[in-house]
Write a structure and sequence with these properties.
10 helices, 242 residues, mainly alpha
């Protein structure tokens, strides 16, 4: 977007970019850029905070009427208010994610955990009336069963026409992540993204299943499957090496 801004400006269209990586903006030199000190994927700050997000948007738009240039990078003055942990938050109950002795046991725990979180996710839906679950087009229980079958080593076919099995696997994993994180965020507390991530990846059978499935599928011959698994199943910051 930073490089594209120059082409748009040559056509008389004023631009401003919101950037999350300041050195990258310094290298590409956009006409105008607002650098925000938020985590990747959240250029407007925390979810469910429209007042804060509006401040970010207005700060960016104000750069269109301010003097300066031809290259101008401005730092947004405030950190993400949700970056700090909420000591009042308590995650929903799930059995302790002790190491599973077999893929079959871990797959069964994944399926059972999704059922256990159903009530917490229903409360999230009642509270917010929306969800980011649904990318796969499958019911969440079917997502769990589909991922579990891969973990059991069965490589099931795609349940949807027009979508390859590796792609549906990716979408099912994304839906399960969203389902668990939304379930964990229900209620009045406002956990930080790190709190939610630590819970998902360190304390749940779902997170343990994703780690195990990633390790399993990275050894497969299917190059497309390996690419999807390496890039989308476990966030880079959470990936385990060795």
């Amino acid at each position: 977007m930073s490089a594209l801004g120059h082409y748009l400006e040559e056509e008389g269209i004023a631009t401003v970019a919101i950037v999350l990586i300041r050195p990258q903006a310094e290298n590409t030199k956009p006409p105008r850029a607002l650098w925000v000190p938020f985590e990747l994927g959240r250029p407007f700050g925390p979810p469910n905070d429209p007042a804060f997000q509006r401040r970010v948007l207005l700060a960016a738009l104000n750069m269109l009427v301010e003097d300066g240039g031809p290259v101008r990078i401005v730092d947004f003055p405030d950190d993400d208010p949700r970056a700090q942990p909420d000591p009042t938050w308590r995650p929903p109950f799930v059995p302790e994610a002790i190491p599973a002795r077999s893929a079959e046991l871990l797959a069964s725990r994944l399926e059972a955990e999704v059922l256990l979180l159903q009530g917490a996710h229903q409360r999230w839906m009642a509270q917010h009336d929306r969800s980011t679950v649904g990318l796969s087009g499958l019911p969440i229980g079917d997502c769990a069963r589909y991922v579990a079958e891969w973990l059991r080593g069965k490589a099931p076919p795609s349940p949807r026409d027009g979508f390859s099995a590796p792609l549906i696997l990716r979408f099912a994993v994304d839906d399960l992540k969203a389902y668990c994180l939304e379930a964990a965020a229900n209620g009045p507390a406002k956990p930080s993204s790190r709190q939610l991530g630590d819970w998902l990846w360190n304390e749940t059978a779902t997170g343990a299943a994703f780690y195990a499935l990633r390790d399993l599928l990275l050894t497969q011959d299917d190059e497309r499957l390996r690419l999807i698994v390496a890039n989308f199943m476990v966030p880079a910051a959470r990936a385990r090496t060795g």
